């Protein structure tokens, strides 16, 4: 192969155009300045360096948090059944929701043929808890016990009304698949705190519900592939194929990886493909994980009173309780971002039973995680996030009966909470109308939440970008503001 053909194979169109533009720019600078000094060369070199995407590595400013545990509740938890007490709903149960309340809010296709929209009172009683007397549902007594440690936001809103785009929007800042998620951004930008474990780990609960969820929610998008979330499976062996096959010992695996690495290096010298480096990183990570993972998943060293705190399902791999205690053990080992997904909050019908089942599976373990981190001195620099992709309607979906009713998707208002990591403990932020249908005070958009999360990790969301296909992308897309009222 001659040199020209080799260059065409090695260099992609984007690389060629970038190099051409920069080269022409340098020549133009020489002509404009009328000199043959090194100034133009330096300008070209600086421009070329600016074009290269480099990890942030060091934060923009002093971070409040070192790591994040995100307890994502897929399906859309009903705000008025959990966190947003509205006496008006009890008073007006069965009456039509006022047209002024619905306004121009979007409704989903599941109620587009519905001609009556009766208000439905919450399937729960409420009481006041904590130093500030915060109203909380009977369904979440364990969360009520930590209300003075959490920052409750009742004024979240989003732009998406269906599950998949709403989940993707919350995790990546855009409704379309293909962008990096929060965990991948942090892995790329801040790197790993523990070289023996992935910086971004994902766990899905089993038994929560049959609502599907796409791996695009923990995708690396256009970032190098080794920043994608590593999914732990809901089994006693959480990482498939990590253990050596029968007859293969650790030294055999090491020798094999060394030979593969040599071949990869040769390949990379020819093609300069960043994915080759990602493959090398992934192989080496898998080798180190062989030693690290067993010590994390073995709960035999946990005291019984700690296991009891998380609930009766804590020893069952794949349950939310089990995933929560594993998340705490990962936080102890400085994993940067741990994402837990629990499905089962999509209650279009049978809400009374569905909400009890979902809270029974999640309430105790969520509160136990916060308590456990706090007693170990980890809560101060660990940000815990609890929330879903949107809320539910205050009116009933389908027929309202004493025995059963449902609520549709609602992006206009919902609740979430955060704990630790520099957030303001005991704060209740934001307010909705008398029907928990519209935010009337201190709105918090999804991009605001993302900007605030990055700020807590020491990152300026407007400066943290990655150039792809000629455009600079960021997690918060083109909007978002840090909400300083939520910070301690």
The biggest beta sheet is recorded as: 9 strands, mixed
Number of strand segments: 17
Whole-number mean pLDDT: 87
Class derived from helix and strand content: alpha/beta
Which band does the percent of strand residues land in? 5-15%
What's the CATH topology name of the largest domain? Alkaline Phosphatase, subunit A
Number of helices, where a helix is a run of at least 4 consecutive DSSP H or I residues = 15
Can you tell me the overall shape? globular
Fraction of residues in helix: 25-40%
Q: Give the total of domains.
A: 2
Question: What radius of gyration results from the CA coordinates?
Answer: 25 Å
Alpha-carbon distance between the two ends: 63 Å
Name of the CATH architecture of the largest domain: 3-Layer(aba) Sandwich
| Uncertain ranges | 4-11, 44-51
The CATH C-level name of the largest domain is Alpha Beta
